[in-house]
Structures are given as structure tokens and as C-alpha cells.
Amino acid sequence: MSTNLTRRRFLQLSAAGATCIPLVSLTGEARAATNQALRAQYKYQDSPVDGKSCTSCLEFIEGSSATAPGRCKLIPGDDEISPNGYCTLWNTM
Ligand code: SF4
Predict the structure, then answer these.
(1) I want to staple 42 with a disulfide (CB 3.0 to 4.6 A). Which of 1, 4, 47, 87 is the partner?
(2) What integer pLDDT is reported at residue 93 of this predicted model?
(3) Ligand 1 neighbourhood includes 86 CB (under 6 angstroms)
(4) Closest Cα to residue 41, out of 79, 11, 84, 70?
(5) Is the CB of 59 under 6 A from ligand 1?
(6) Does position 13 have pLDDT exceeding 70, yes or no?
(7) Is 44 close to ligand 1, i.e. is its CB under 6 Å away?
(8) Is 5 helix (H, G, I), strand (E, B) or coil?
(9) Of all protein residues, whose CA lies closest to atom 7 belonging to ligand 1?
(10) Is the pLDDT reported for residue 83 higher than 80?
(11) Looking at ligand 1, which atom is closest to the CA of residue 89?
């Protein structure tokens, strides 16, 4: 059962990640991208809930500074995750 849940979650993340096309300009300069499908699926928002925020979540990858947008290990293709954001996957274990 645990294997099925893990496999299901992997497939969900893969499918949603594939739909997110990284934005790269013609000059090759990378631009900010968001993964709207997974944001919606996990009810991501740019503000904390009950003191829980991305900055205190183990899945958060800090940006260029403590206040700059970062990334999330569970939302591929998105480099606009707010340190003050929150989603239903918030995790501290
Ligand atoms: S799992 Fe959710 S709460 Fe945690 S860093 Fe990613 S978007 Fe933020």
C-alpha cells in the first residue's frame, strides 16, 4: 500500500511537472517560472497559515536571499515560491 501511494505521488508529480514548460528567452536567459498545475493541486498560497510557511518547510530551497523567491522540492519547474508561502504539503519531519 505504501509503495502504491509513493508510485501514485511520483506519477502525479511527473505529469504535472511535464506540463510546466520552463520559460527561456531567445537569448537563452532563464526567466521565472511557476507550476500552476501543482500550485493549484496543493493549494499553494503566498501567505502563511497558522505560522506555517515555506521557509520552515523541509521541502523549501531558499532563493538568492532569505526573502527572495525560492523553489520547492515537490513543485518542479517553479522558482517563484515565496518564503512566506504555504501549501498542503507543508512538512517539518
Ligand atoms: S511543500 Fe508547500 S509549504 Fe513546503 S516549501 Fe513546498 S510549497 Fe512551501
Answers:
(1) 87
(2) 86
(3) yes
(4) 11
(5) yes
(6) no
(7) yes
(8) helix
(9) 87
(10) yes
(11) 1
Instruction: Give the Å distance between the CA of 44 and the centre of ligand 1.
Output: 8
Residues 15-72 pLDDT 10s: 555 554 454 445 555 668 999 999 999 999 999 999 999 999 999 999 999 999 999 9
Instruction: Identify the residue whose C-alpha is closest to ligand 1 atom 8.
Output: 54
Residue 19: predicted pLDDT: 52
Give me 42's grid cell: 496543493
Cα-based angle 78, 66, 58 (whole degrees, multiple of 5): 60
CA of 82 to the centre of ligand 1 (A): 9
Nearest-CA neighbor of 76 among 36, 30, 45, 25? 36
Pocket lining: 37 vs ligand 1, CB cutoff 6 Å: no
Q: What is the pLDDT of residue 30?
A: 61
pTM of the model: 0.71
